[in-house]
Each structure stands twice: as C-alpha cells, then as structure tokens.
C-alpha cells in the first residue's frame, strides 16, 4: 500500500519511511507543502502522514486544499509537542488522527495500520477471509491456523485484497499499490503473483473478473 510521507526534516522522513517499509507499506517522501499538495491531489495513497510545519505551504493549508477538492484519503498529522491548538485545527481541517512529536516509530506504524483498516471499514487488527487470517501487526498470513511463507510482494498483495474483501479491485489500482509509481506496471506479473497466491492460500478465494480486476471473498460453502 502506498503511503505518502510529508516531512521536511530529512532524518525524520527517512526514519518514518524505513519504519513503514519494514511494516509492509510502500512509502514515498516529499519535503515541502507544494509538492505534497500536488502528490496528494494527483496520486492515490492508502494514507498520508503530514507534518504541519512545512516550507512553501504549511501542512494545514495543504490538508484544507485536499479536503476542499474532495480528497478522502486518511491523513495522520504530525504536530509539535504541546501544541494543542494546532491539533484542534488539524482535526477540524479534516485530519483523521494526530501524533505529537517526538514519537516512537512503533506508535506511528500502529496508528497508520489502524487508520488504513478503519478507512476500509474493518474494526479488528487481524482480517479474516474464510480460512485465511491476515495479521498486519506481524505481517503474517495463515490458512486454517497454519502460517504461510509469503514473499514481501505476495504479502502486500494479499493484505491489500483482504483489506478490501468483497470489492473488485481494478488491475491498475493493485499494480500501483503493489509496485508504487515508478516501477514497471505489468498486468502479466500481477496475474502470475495471483496464481502463486492461489496455490498457497487455496483456490476459490481470489476471483479473476476479466476486464475488471480481482476480488477476494469468502469461498461459498
Ligand atoms: Ca517540519
């Protein structure tokens, strides 16, 4: 899943990106408000981490512009410690959660995971689809209680499909969320990956809808 990290302090941006990458996300970083606004307006992200103190355009203004143009992406704002007025303003401007600096990366990653699943309408930390259980906290996938060995790419794919279970996900959306913006986009590679997943997780879970995309749902009894 693609996550945009907007942070002008390179060291913090790098640490956040590394933590998100280790948690199975695909982070991209930008360091100023104008670039952030443009990226958030033109690309699709599962979530945006937004620092409020930014050069060129401050984070609140960026957030207000996204919301004014109807961008619904979940946004986690990073605020200065003790700046309660800033937090109130951020939430009023359309932030979904906030985290005061300095923070532990574990907490940031946990909040990102929670926001991503809440925005998909899922209330539990682990996602169940028939016999399959996906646990984003440990990046583990099990079938009937038996842990499966998945590659990082296979994990990302099944996590995204499970998060959006019951919905047909267009091929271009899956490719974008799997490989990011810069990688080669290849529908055949995706099909091969889906076939490997079916072998590991069992058939009947992931359906191909020719010309539309892929759908993960509980197999019919
Ligand atoms: Ca800053």
Report on this model:
The two termini are 31 Å apart. The chain has eight helices and twelve strands. With 221 residues, it is α/β, with parallel strands linked by helices. The model has no long low-confidence stretch (mean pLDDT 93). Helix 2 (33-42) packs parallel to helix 3 (59-68). The chain is elongated and about 55 Å long. A five-stranded parallel β-sheet has the order 2-1-3-4-5, sandwiched between helices. It has helices at residues 10-22, 33-42, 59-68, 84-92, 105-119, 152-163, 171-179, 187-201; strands at 2-6, 26-30, 47-51, 75-79, 97-100, 127-129, 132-135, 140-143, 146-147, 169-170, 206-209, 213-216. Strand 3, helix 3 and strand 4 form a beta-alpha-beta unit.
Q: Briefly, what is this?
A:
The protein is of the alpha/beta class. It has helices at residues 10-22, 33-42, 59-68, 84-92, 105-119, 152-163, 171-179, 187-201, and strands at 2-6, 26-30, 47-51, 75-79, 97-100, 127-129, 132-135, 140-143, 146-147, 169-170, 206-209, 213-216.
List keywords for this structure.
four-stranded antiparallel β-sheet; 42% helix; 8 helices; 221 residues; binds calcium ion; 12 strands; five-stranded parallel β-sheet; 21% strand; alpha/beta
